[in-house]
Every structure is written in structure tokens, then in C-alpha cells.
Amino acid sequence: MIPQSGPRSSFHSLGACFLFHEAGAYVVGTINPELYKFPEDKSETDFPDGNIGRLWFSIEYEQESERLLVSLIKVRKLQPPADSCSPFVKIYLLPDERSCLQSKTKRKTLNPQFDENFVFQVSSKMLLQRTLKFLVYHVDKHKKHHLLGQVIFPLKNEVLTDDNKLVIWRDLEKENLEPPSEYGDIQFSLSYNDYLGRLTVVVLRARGLKLQEESHAVGVYVKVSLMNHNKFIKSKKTAAVLGTANPVYNETFSFKADQTELDTASLSLSVLQSIKGEKTLLLGRVVVGPFMYTRGKELEHWNEMISKPKELVKRWHALCHSM
């Protein structure tokens, strides 16, 4: 899904009060929804099977004041556990998961309209290493919170300037509620285009990594290697994400692979940690491929990719340390 440029408006003319937050983030009062009307498109009507909701938001960065302006616009087609739904949204700027900003609760609606502004204080130097995380909850009649879905949005690929407000929508994903595996887990998508003979890997994120040293200087990256008959063909790697055991990447890599090679080819994804001035350490690895090399979930992922040409097939995999 391609981010859509939306209308531009000034956050200084909204007449809202400012509530300061000790973590360098704060809420700005409500906004005028008329400023955020954009052309009707299929994003309002075209929902795939199994969809659990869709969230719209906008982002803008003020260079001089070093403020990230986030507008939570709306959510559509929520799928609550009960008949009624009273949703609200928590917003995090990862890797900081200790503090968040929270929207107001909308009563009894599957299609809440929020139109609320939030501000995170973040330096331009650190901005592109940050990731926005939206958690959508439902409050039941006993005041208990139920997580309905999440949106993870890395900022590293965005052009964020004073005069460039991006209006974006993303489908909600279910959060992986299972505890991390012993060495952590990695999520990635696979796709094969039989016409072009192209194998595509989208490295999405990892979680629960066992870092050898936890500090902001520690960089974690993923190396993706294409093998054939266990012989190395080519490798590519993501940019390093600093200082977190739950890095988000969203990076896409493509390899040339003829359809006749899919029975003998395999992909190795290695999660590596680099410490300044020291050697690189392997945190974990997973191999996906045909029956010749894999079993279980790794084999299922490979076979599903082949059975659904040109479609991105997304899965989580447990990392192993010795393979």
C-alpha cells in the first residue's frame, strides 16, 4: 500500500490547548475534520477477506521545533469480540514502549471518527530510526480492555518535512500474543513471480531477540541469503536498527530464481548484532525452502508461496541458534 499525500493544514491555527507529557510527547486538542477530507477511493470500500479493520492517520515533521505531528483520523470495519464496540487507540513511538499517548473512547461504533492530534518530541537525527505503533482497543461494560489490532509504521522510508503532510491508511494486524521463542522470532513475507522468475522477500520485524549487550550503540540487522543445492548464490541485508530487541525493518529484497530451481533453492535469514569496534554476532537464523531442506512451518511457508504466485505470504518463524 502506497502512502497517500493528503491536504496540508496548519497545526498552529486549530485553537487547541496543549497538554504536556513527561516523555516528550503530548496531545493536541481536536481538529476540524473538514481539513482532512480526501477524495473517495477504494480504501473506503475495498476490504479483503479476513480484514479486522483499517486505520487512517497523518504525519508531519516540524524541523525547527523537532516535533512529529500525528493526526489520528479514523478507523473503519472493526471486528469486536461482542456486538457493541467502544474503541480507543494508544500510540507509541518505538523503541520507547514505556510511554504512550491515548485517544478518547468512542462509544458504540465499529467505525470511529477520532480527528485527534498528538505530538512527539524527537530530534531529526533520531526520527528515521523511530517507528509508530497504533494499538486499537475495545472497552467492554466491565471496563476491561480488549486489543482488536495494531498498525506498525516505520518512519525510515518517509520524506517528512514542514510542507509535506502524509495521509496514510493501513489495515490492522493481530498482535502475536504468543511468548517469544528461545532465541526470538522473525516475521517476513515471501512472494514468487513465475512470469519474471523473481523471488521476493519482505523482512518485516523481529521480536524477543537475545541481545548480547543492550545499549543504543547496538545495531541489529537481517542478512537474507539465496542458496541452491546448499551452495551460496547471493545475499542482501537490511539496514541496522539500533538499541532494541524488537526491531522493525519493512525492507524488500528480490532474487532471480527460475521456476525449475524452486525444488533445490532455499532462503536463509540470519539476524546479526554488530557492536561498534567488535565482531558481528549471530542472534538466530531460519531457513525456508522445499522438502529437501525444511519441515514444519518453514516448509509450509515455502509451499504456500508457490501455490499463490505474485501474492505476498506473511508468517512468523522461530529463530534457531545452530543450523
UniProtKB/TrEMBL annotation:
Keywords: Repeat. The keyword Repeat applies. GO terms for molecular function: calcium ion binding; calcium-dependent phospholipid binding; clathrin binding; phosphatidylserine binding; SNARE binding. InterPro entries: C2_dom (IPR000008), C2_domain_sf (IPR035892), Synaptotagmin-15/17_C2A (IPR047897). Residues 51-170, 182-303 form the C2 domain. GO terms for cellular component: exocytic vesicle; plasma membrane. PROSITE patterns: C2. The keyword Endoplasmic reticulum does not apply. One of its GO terms (biological process) is calcium-ion regulated exocytosis. Belongs to the synaptotagmin family. PANTHER family: SYNAPTOTAGMIN (PTHR10024), SYNAPTOTAGMIN-15-RELATED (PTHR10024:SF234). This is Synaptotagmin-15 isoform X5. It comes from Pipra filicauda.
